[in-house]
Amino acid sequence: MNKLTIAGKTFNSRLFTGTGKFNSLELMEESLLNSGSELVTVALKRVDTRSVSDDIVSRLNHDQFSLLPNTSGVRTAEEAIFASELAREALETNWIKLEIHPDPKYLMPDPIETLKAAEELVNRGFIVLPYIHADPVLCKRLEEVGTAAVMPLGSPIGSNKGLKTEDFLQIIIEQAEVPVVVDAGIGAPSHAARAMELGADAVLVNTAIAVSDDPVSMGMAFKLAVEAGRIAYESRLGRALDTAQASSPLTSFLEE
Amino acid sequence: MTFYDHIAQLSWDELGASIYAKSKSDVELALSKESCDLEDFKALVSPAAEPYLEEMARISQLKTQKRFGKTIQLYIPMYLSNECQNICTYCGFSLDVKIPRKTLSDQEIVKEAETIKQMGYDHVLIVTGEANKEVGTDYFKNAIRLLKPYFSHISLEVQPLYRNEYQELIQEGLNTVLVYQETYHEKNYKLHHPKGKKSNFRFRVETHDRLGKAGIHKMGLGVLIGLEDWRIDSVFNATHLQYLERTYWKTKYSVSFPRLRPCAGGNSVKSAISDRQLVQLICAYRLFNEELELSMSTRESASFRDNIIKLGITSISADSKTDPGGYANPKENLEQFEIDDKRDTKEFSKVIEEQGYEPVFKDWDLGLQ
Lengths: 256, 369
Prior knowledge:
The complex is a heterodimer.
Chain A lengths: L3 E3 L2 E3 L3 E4 L6 H11 L3 E5 L11 H5 L6 E5 L6 H15 L3 E4 L12 H13 L3 E6 L3 H10 L5 E2 L13 H10 L5 E3 L5 H10 L3 E4 L1 H4 L4 H20 L22
Parallel strand pairs in A: 3-4, 3-10, 4-5, 6-7, 7-8, 9-10
Antiparallel strand pairs in A: 1-2
Helix pairs in contact in A: 1-9, 3-4, 4-5, 5-6, 7-9
Chain B lengths: L2 H6 L3 H9 L3 H9 L5 H8 L7 H16 L2 E9 L26 H13 L4 E5 L9 H11 L5 E5 L5 H10 L3 E3 L7 H7 L8 H5 L1 H8 L3 E4 L8 H18 L4 E5 L18 H14 L4 E4 L5 H7 L6 E3 L27 H10 L3 E3 L9
Parallel strand pairs in B: 1-2, 1-8, 1-9, 2-3, 3-4, 4-5, 5-6, 6-7, 7-8
């Protein structure tokens, strides 16, 4: 399996994970370690930026993990930039998962504000991974302003509905010059495997692991699914056919 | 156009009749749907849904965990004043109740903040009665400034204000405002609130419109369960919620479930709700709206609170005092209502953990707004 590189950093695992929704921080730690994930996103709003030893952050203090702070909760580019600066200072990383969802119900990302904020954050020296709709044009625009990857959604955050946007993800993957990370909506290992088979560079999973009855085992299940999907992609997975094709009725005359 | 214009077209009696006419098959239809509409909500709060409580609870638990995870947000109320110019027939702060009145000074507010912070809280809810002279916008502005260094999330449960006042407070760092309509029965509303600014039904019911226009992050709704028929009031409240979500789509919403409790002024419970029915109501809201925050206070008993954590509630207060200055100086006795669950924060956090949930103290940052 090829290794993944984003902004010069190499990852052995193509499974990125979230840190919310677990029923305890101990369980979160154990589950994420078991998943093999090397990039974990943490919401700035959950981190105690005024304390030197925040509970969540100290649980993630393992060589295996790099932190990817996210701006969840902001509604505009201006708020996102401010939050990113706070995160950079508090968590000592210039990586940022840019999330701007002015709609708190379905948490749909705002494409206009995201593009604005991404450009400014790149200028300020951030490694920007923007969470967006599966919009191929927006992905190209973000790439042009210098984002390190794009993170299109499979379906709404936390919905576990899988790859409802599959057709658009395919276009994005086909056109992308930066890594494509499918984020949001992946509700089962089979969804993750499917995204990888399509050629996504990585997936980000949170709810499906955190809310399962056994997050430690589920972390492992996603790890295996992501590896299987990726290996299948690299091995050039055959296409699915609707009918059996035993002979060549249309062109067999050429052989006669 | 505000919600007042919207409900002018609704008849209390007709709405009530349509709720009580719901049948088992209406309930079964609602339970089979992935997303419920208002008609489904009516069925779920109707008497016809009572035999389906276990199934409602099961769906409610699944939906809540999917959206909110296995976490419970903790917050704490901070009473800054019990001055009040209103007469409300059910409230311990009512103007006609002879209790000592108190409004906290700057020094006392800071002392309360320090005490609460030490207890572990990061989300604080400011509460006062309605006394615009003693506790108006300037007082709140000052209080927010004093509290900001201690807390990441500041909410307000005070008298309804004007849009520009809300804007000023949001500028200072206010995140959330809770205003409960008490009842949507306009005629009887006036019987329960005979005197004071609160007697103006329209001004109160339009508060959430003013908040939405001011750009508030989150607003809370609710009715005082027991004042009038709780089923009809809850359907009005759900209608209000749906109108607000569509109109002010950038705002987050929460619903609370205050039941009338004994207090110094005596009270007037007309439509008592049983524990079983309260669970029904909470689950009905979750089935109706997966993303809604559902909140519970210490008015409820310890055993009820312990069990409801798993059924749809997402945020809960604990270790609360309902008298101004009560945390730093626990001797005074100026409560708005008697709390039932008196366990301390550590004890209650342990209960949450035992139920398989993580107690969350911080889920916001003033840097985000």
